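stage 2 :: seqdesign
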């Protein structure tokens, strides 16, 4: 899994993506995930579950792609199963704290 933290005027943006998805493009009737063109948004450092858990403790928004990344948000109680979207079977979610 990759983790990259972006800082902006609205706070911290947590971007995490399962490593095996990077560099690929997924498209179906539900949408489009371009993890090749936008890999720079997600690829920071290889991460562990504990590092992602810590990052998700303090964020303004989060973009999570893949089974491992989305599972951590579920485990932390940040999302319900109904909140998760899928493109070509790949789970993803965007979270915002307001």
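stage 2 :: out
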């Amino acid at each position: 899994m990759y983790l990259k933290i972006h800082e902006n005027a609205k706070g911290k943006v947590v971007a995490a993506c399962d490593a095996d998805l990077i560099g690929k493009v997924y498209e179906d009737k539900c949408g489009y995930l371009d993890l090749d063109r936008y890999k720079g948004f997600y690829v920071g450092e290889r991460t562990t579950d504990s590092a992602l858990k810590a990052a998700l403790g303090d964020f303004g928004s989060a973009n999570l792609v893949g089974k491992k990344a989305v599972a951590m948000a579920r485990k932390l109680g940040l999302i319900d199963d109904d909140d998760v979207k899928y493109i070509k079977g790949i789970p993803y979610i965007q979270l915002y704290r307001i």
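stage 3 :: structure notes
- The chain has one domain: 2-96.
- The helical segments are 39-42, 49-55, 67-75.
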